[in-house]
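Board work, copied verbatim: tRNA (uracil(54)-C(5))-methyltransferase
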Amino acid sequence: RLANVVTPLWRLPYQEQPQVKYESQKKILQTLASRLEELGIDAQKPGGLCCPLQPVVPSPVINGYRNKSTFSVNRGPDGNLKTVGLYVGTGRARNIVCVKANHVENIPPKHKQVAQCYEEFIRCSPLDPCILFHEGGHWRELVVRTTSCGHTMAIVTFHPQELGQEALATQKALLKEFFVCGPGTVCALTSLYFQESTMTRCSHEQSPFQLLHGEPHIFEEVLGLKFRISPDAFFQVNTGGAEVLYQAVGELSQAGGDTVLLDICCGTGEKWLCTIGLSLAHQMSKIIGIEVVEKAIEDARWNAAFNGISNCEFHSGKAEAVLPQLLSSWEDARPLVAVVNPSRAGLHYRVVQAIRNCKSIRRLLYISCKPEGEAMRNLLELCCPPDPGKKLAGEPFAPTLAIPFDMFPHTVHCELVLLLTR
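↓ predict structure ↓
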């Protein structure tokens, strides 16, 4: 049942999965065309689409492709409260259980192994799991990250409740001993992190990630470049798929030697590493990266220097604050191409305004893992007729080409790259 929830297409032969996703992307582009028609934009193309839709680009890796997995701790089907796995059920029906991920196709064996060892550790611990914060307990979720370089990072989240520093130090020492000297040594961890968290999600600034063992970073290679990854760094979950995606973005940008690429990172909490910009730097005259988390900018600068990339500049701050300021004084005559890859919350309205009102941006690549959500609102704002009331004065963009990438085999999701031009 877990496989049916997490990877609902797993029974379908992989060669048939892209067609299922193609049909869903087709409906999204038909909806966008209809919405634009309502705004007075003649957007209907053959098939009722707003632009040509290319076939879904398949993933180069089909099974075990995830480089990051998050495992919860909760009651298992057998009633054991210390079960490490993925949720099945709903809160409304009060039937949530935590099921081991052993049969889930998209999670690699190494992640399952670390989850199994973590379960073994907490079952031997006298401390309770933390399922509901107000009911006490301590052991919470586990994040496992792996790379094609053979590195493995484990991050354990722990609710301190009323424990003092000495008791906390004891728990950290026991966890480290288990993975460094005990049964957990089979995992061969490159990095073991511990985070004391009293919230559902904590940033490093709110509650620092504490390195208990190993290296502070793991490393990944993308298109011949090496990236260092921190515990809270955002990285496309399918590394092989990301390489195919970034290459396509480079081609769609139609970059000449004088092109400036604007890599607008709109993450919330996780650190986006400006990987798109850095991976395309060799094609461009200049890369400008914007990222909200200062630590991510540090990582991006380190990655640029390590890879010998000198044509990048990075701006730290919220995109809605930095971008309008940057573009309002833009006088560079070089072609300017923008790439946005927002979270599911979409782009902030002020980011849309800044892009729309900057005459120098003639090509925009909008990358979305959920184009039917908030991305739809963004696309309508970018493509609607000028609206002085909403401060959308610039010439509207038009959808020109859509390419879906299957970054998530066995699931119903894919990543859509929409080229907008004017």
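The mean pLDDT is 91.
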